[in-house]
Amino acid sequence: MEKTISYTHKKSKRAKRMRLAVYCDGSVVITSPFGVQQSIVEKFVSDKKQWVWDKIQFFNSVDSKAIRTFSHKDYLENKDNALVLVNERFEFYNKIYGFSFNKIYIKNQKTRWGSCSNKQNINLNYKIVFLSQKHQDYIIVHEMCHLKEFNHSRKFWALVEKTLPYYLEIKKELRNHELFYI
Length: 182
Known about the structure:
By secondary structure, the protein is α/β, with parallel strands linked by helices.
């Protein structure tokens, strides 16, 4: 008998695509843009069924005390440290790249480590301070390279590789951190 996945479906004005999240308590949430038919949502969940079960099993297998959760207080206590760290590493790498940018913002994001806007602003998650330096550097260089290549083309990855030749390995490692720091 096939297990069904129970989930909460949230519709968002800001969503551009469907997103599926499994949380450490085992709850499953799918977020979709308005106007997406329920049958498409169900197919999306069905296609990701094995991934969802793997995540649920993972969370059931780890000690819940090992999973760090964050509060608004954590953000307030760490955002200044994050800004100092990011500015230092940005300055270090920008000596190599020489990119111009507008401003760096430290945010309390739930699903992203960082982003780069078309206004040349860099947004980074304050939780970056809890990562190792190689992971911090990957996130910073990744967003910095979007100042030149606003995509994930070969040119973009070549820019990242210029200073982080082992970026693929670091990127893979960082995916594991998402479970603990979001």
